[in-house]
TrEMBL record:
GO molecular function terms noted in the UniProt entry: chloride channel activity
Entry keyword Electron transport: no
Pfam family, one: Bestrophin_2
Topological relation to the membrane, as annotated: Multi-pass membrane protein
InterPro entries: YneE/VCCN1/2-like (IPR044669)
Keyword Cell membrane: yes
Name by which UniProt lists this protein: Bestrophin homolog
Species, as recorded: Heterosigma akashiwo (Chromophytic alga)
UniProt keyword terms in alphabetical order: Cell membrane, Ion transport, Membrane, Signal, Transmembrane, Transmembrane helix, Transport
Compartment(s) of residence: Cell membrane
Recorded coiled-coil stretches: none
Signal peptide: 1-17
Length: 429
């Protein structure tokens, strides 16, 4: 009887966690850790699982800061809560992405890094299980499994003469189910890692293009340098829009001109349109002693590599894991989990309810992880961090501020550390 009441209490707690029972006080608006949110700060909240982000735009005053509307924490760090769920969403320190954080107020870290989980976080991981995003995504099969287990257990108590099923069938097919889940997760992770490699190629090509703009500054001219640098900085943003859908005009308005927006509006492939613009600018450079066909072909090869990343990303987006394989795995897992209470309820009684909840959480959680990282460009990869890295690296590579692109030569970057000036050669007296 005591076990029965404990099981009932666990079920009520689970319902409260999943907001089947409304929490007192109603939904709460999640506030940024750096700035109080008001209706004037943002137009539409962004969906983000990060708790806080430190970006290069946070190191300088808000006045004359073109990045403020882009990197304003009040716009980025807001997650639009579902009804009756705002107060239950956790914000983990490990979800924080640091963007070249200052050390001691002066020194920058080498690269943007996300915090890693360690063994010291073991207790924290257990404490945040009820509020994890994974449970929120799999709550439907989890609650159905626990409810079905309650029905089976109650039926066996009402009809004690009905024998329980033998667990041999589940034992025989459990190995096949485990292989399916492992293969599914491994295939999804390979897609995730391939997506990261593609965007690393985007970053490498952008750095190489900025380096060419610096090495051949006299041959290219300031106007062409500014134009190419603007297009290079706009490319990752437009590529992200192309892969995720939607538009972010407030992030490209500093890079593109009015004519560019007209052409992009008519283009079916906007990233390809930007790459073609870069190629046209390079083609228009006149030949000289220092700018021959070799230099032009080398620069066009980088443009071609940038164009190849578009097709590589489209291949991942347009070619998901075969639907038949995904459906069969889901059906196999569902039937296995829903039939398991018929074998456990006879021996465990009401204890089968929390046991089945644990089994469903583990197996459906593995499947959900694979579904999440299968499309790496939507929820798995933080593409904004890579785009921000391109901005900063273009600034550093271009060097002198009088030849930076329009967006990068604004007063905002006046406080950015300048490269050391070359020392004049000593003259013999």
């Amino acid at each position: 009887m005591l076990l029965k009441y404990l099981t009932l209490a666990c079920a009520v707690s689970a319902c409260a966690a999943f907001h089947i029972i409304p929490a007192p006080g109603g939904p709460n608006v999640i506030k940024s850790s750096t700035k109080q949110l008001t209706s004037n700060n943002f137009q539409k909240p962004h969906y983000s699982t990060r708790r806080s982000i430190t970006r290069i735009g946070d190191y300088f005053p808000e006045k004359n800061n073109p990045l403020h509307s882009i990197f304003n924490p009040a716009r980025i760090l807001v997650r639009k809560p579902a009804p009756q769920r705002a107060s239950r969403i956790s914000r983990l320190e490990h979800d924080k992405v640091t963007f070249r954080t200052r050390v001691g107020g002066e020194k920058f870290l080498s690269i943007p890094q996300a915090e890693r989980y360690t063994t010291q976080d073991w207790l924290h991981n257990l404490r945040t299980i009820p509020s994890s995003l994974l449970i929120q995504r799999i709550r439907q099969p989890l609650l159905v499994t626990m409810g079905w287990t309650c029905v089976v257990t109650a039926a066996l108590h009402v009809f004690p003469a009905v024998p329980a099923l033998s667990p041999k069938a589940h034992t025989f097919v459990s190995s096949a189910l485990s292989l399916l889940l492992v293969f599914r997760t491994n295939a999804a992770y390979n897609r995730f890692w391939e997506g990261r490699q593609i965007w690393q190629k985007v970053l490498d090509c952008a750095r190489s293009l900025a380096r060419y703009l610096t090495l051949y500054a006299e041959e290219l001219g300031d106007a062409r340098r500014k134009r190419v640098a603007n297009l290079v900085c706009a490319f990752p943003i437009v590529l992200q829009e192309h892969l995720q859908g939607g538009e972010k005009p407030h992030r490209t308005e500093y890079f593109l001109e009015a004519e560019d927006y007209l052409e992009l509006g008519r283009a079916s492939n906007r990233p390809l349109c930007l790459v073609n613009k870069i190629a046209k600018v390079v083609k228009g450079v006149e030949y000289s002693a220092a700018w021959t066909s070799r230099e032009r072909l080398a620069l066009l090869a980088l443009v071609n590599s940038l164009s190849d990343t578009i097709g590589a990303c489209e291949r991942l987006v347009q070619t998901p894991v075969p639907l038949a394989y995904t459906r069969h795995t889901n059906r196999f897992l569902s039937l296995w989990v829903l039939s398991l209470p018929l074998t456990l309820a006879g021996d465990m009684g009401w204890g089968a309810v929390p046991a089945m909840g644990l089994v469903a959480w583990a197996l459906f959680g593995i499947q959900e992880i694979g579904l999440t990282i299968e499309d790496p460009f939507r929820r798995a990869l933080k593409l904004e961090v890579i785009a921000d890295t391109i901005y900063a690296d273009v600034i550093q590579t271009m060097g002198s501020r009088d030849v930076l692109p329009t967006y990068l030569s604004t007063p905002f970057f006046a406080n950015f550390p300048a490269p050391p000036a070359a020392e004049a050669p000593a003259t013999s007296g």
